[in-house]
Amino acid sequence: MDLVNESPRVLGNRYEVGDLLGRGGMAEVHLGRDTRLGRTVAIKLLRTDLARDPTFQARFRREAQSAAALNHPAIVAVYDTGEESITEIGGGLVSLPYIVMEHIEGRTLRDVLSEGRPLDVDLALDVTTGVLTALEYSHRIGIVHRDIKPANVMLTPNGDVKVMDFGIARALADASSTMTQTQAVIGTAQYLSPEQARGEQVDTRSDLYSTGCLLFELLTGRPPFVADSPVAVAYQHVREQPPAPSQLARGIPESVDRIVLHSLAKEREARYQSAAEFRSDVEAARGGRQVAAQPVPVATVGDTATQYLGVAGGQGTRAMPPVGGMLGPEGAGGPTTPYDDRYGSYDANRYDDEQRSKRTPWIVAGVVVAVLALVAFLVSQLVGGDPPGSATVTVPSVVGQPQELATTTLEGLKLKVTPVPKVVDDPEDIGRVIDQDPDANATVAENSEVKITVGAEPGTIKVPDVVGDKQADAIAQLQEAGLVLEDVRQETPDEDSRVEPGEVIRTDPEAGEEVERGSKVTIIVASDEIVLGDFSGQTFAEARERLIDLGLTPRQQPRPDDSADEGTVIGQNPRAGTKVSKGQTVTLIVAVAPEPTDEPTEDPEPTDSPQPSSTTTTDPPDNG
User: Fold this and answer.
1) Which of 188, 286, 364, 448 has a beta carbon 3.0–4.6 Å from 444's, enabling a disulfide?
2) How far, in Å, CA of 576 to CA of 240, rounded?
């Protein structure tokens, strides 16, 4: 699609669009500047060639809403969302949605690993802790990342971890169920969970598997499975056991091996069940404590045998060969990077001609046939048909049906229904479905969303009062009232506001205002920050109680001051009007009585004329 202005210079009369930072399967990310606040931002724009596709527009908006709901120090923050109308060469208008995000200075883990060496064990565990902290938060509010990989994790110059692109993998996965049609899935095949490779529905434990792949690569410099095609990698995720990290790199403790292999269990029930559980083991290993992960089967590098990884020296445990013995004929003095340069894969056990000659041709042929058959089956499932274990639905036509009947029909097929009211002139269309997305006969996965446009009668309605409600509840109330959600924005509430993070501060138009049925409404949701009030003049006990109510941590700093009552707040840090986050420490400067000083000896009362000494007498005058 050719546009007159492919990249608008200013979005929303506020955001200046700068240089291109990166390009993905659905969006482009540009450096930007918020002219109102004078700060550097990153701006994600839907690709212009997809801007006319309502499906991609809807997915991009869903990503914006999902990302805006996340407010955590380890997650790249979303500041604002909106849409810009762009004029095509033919004169038509197309809506281009965008997301304004926090701009992070630093490097992705992909850039760090591209230097060709793994991370120090302690640093790898620290980075993984940061990723799991972000996932623990997102999973708690019901958002699965689905695309944890080195390119989506950033390290800032001061060592902080920032996880990016929440929601984008979900949107791209909706676009296609096959690996060949979705470049994003091809690019991340090395971090796919077995259930993703099989095409099954993912959950939070899928993120934990991908995090295990990430930790494996941080420790060894390579993913757990490598091959010359994404299909072959996916096959390995489903069928093969990974090697222990200590087989590929020196200095990795046995406890860390157990953590990695436990996180890479094929069945979801056999791996970590929560990010908190995973993080607890990582922190235990970092501190030299016992981990909860149990011994698991582990593949031997360069061999088809499987050993059992247990406590070093424990009963029933096969000792692992020394790292040097896995580097081929060179032994311990061999190359420090045991990779095959042709394929980027590990080539640890190089057999000489005598060893190869001992293999009988029929065994080799049998193995090749078995492998090809399995790969062919996987290819047929991923490319030519529905993924094994997945359930798909053919969307029926519900246009012309009453809303209640259409909803019952679609929900009976395990589809999620989102009604979108639209004012119509024809009375016969009121209450009936006049459009649907996806269209009839489209094939989608179970639990996919189907939007039905329902005819609404002309007239005005009052915007319902959703202040104080959670975001999802507010959206549902607006839709039930016959209104359409236009946007979700975050805003920092005042210190005096009793609205909790994630709750609605206000709507635009405001509650009680009369609008046309089918009108668009924007909801403004409280962010995790608040504007700090002024505590001067309050007692420390009063101010302390208020700070705790706000989720802040009070700290007392006494200061001698005789101009204020003792125990009264005379200052604070940060100052009033500053934006602060939950859990942040606020120092209250409290007046205390000044320390008494040593008093000098009292001087005698001064007189106008010198007084005679008490020991001196004066003779009377001699009068002769």
Assistant:
1) 448
2) 59
Could you give the C-alpha distances from 259 to 145, 191, 276, 468, in angstroms and in order?
Answer: 21, 17, 13, 42
User: For residue range 535-580, what is the model confidence (pLDDT) as tens digits?
Assistant: 999 999 999 988 888 778 899 999 998 888 889 999 999 988 888 8
Rounded distance, CA 45 to CA 30, Å? 8
Q: What is the pTM of this model?
A: 0.49
Region 598-617: what's the mean pLDDT? 50
- Name the phi and psi angles at 257, rounded to 5: -55, -45
Residue 505, phi-psi category: left (phi > 0), alpha (psi -120 to 50), beta (remainder): alpha
Place 265 in a pLDDT band, splitting at 50, 70 and 90: very high
The last residue of one of the domains, among 102, 131, 155, is 102
CATH number at residue 484: 3.30.10.20
75 shares its domain with 210: no
State the Rg of the chain over Cα.
34
Burial grade of 88 (CB within 10 A; 0-12, 13-18, 19 or more): middle
119-149 residue pLDDT tens: 999 999 999 999 999 999 988 878 888 889 9
- What is d(CA 590, CA 569) in angstroms, rounded to the nearest whole number? 4
- Which residues in 268-379 belong to E strands, given as ranges? 296-299, 306-309, 339-340, 345-346
Asked whether residue 342 is domain-assigned, the answer is no
Residue after which a domain boundary falls, among 85, 102, 119: 102
Residues 26 and 42 in one domain: yes
Omega of the bond leading into 438 within 30 degrees of 0 (cis) = yes
What is the C-alpha to C-alpha distance for residues 508 and 521, in angstroms, rounded to an integer? 6
* Domain, as residue range, for 415: 392-529
Residues carrying an active site annotation: 147
Phi then psi for residue 235, to 5 deg, are -60, -45
What are the residues whose beta carbons fall under 8 Å from the beta carbon of 223, sequence distance 6 or more? 190, 191, 213, 216, 217
Can you list the positions of beta strands (E) in 405-519?
A: 416-423, 433-437, 443-445, 449-456, 460-462, 484-491, 504-508, 514-516
Residue holding tokens 């724009």?
45
Q: Residues 374-388: pLDDT tens digits? A: 555 454 444 444 444
The pLDDT value recorded for residue 235 is: 86
Q: How far apart are CA 516 and CA 580, in angstroms?
A: 39
CB 260 within 8 A of CB 215: yes
Predicted confidence at residue 320, as pLDDT, reads 36
Two structure tokens written together for 419: 């009604």
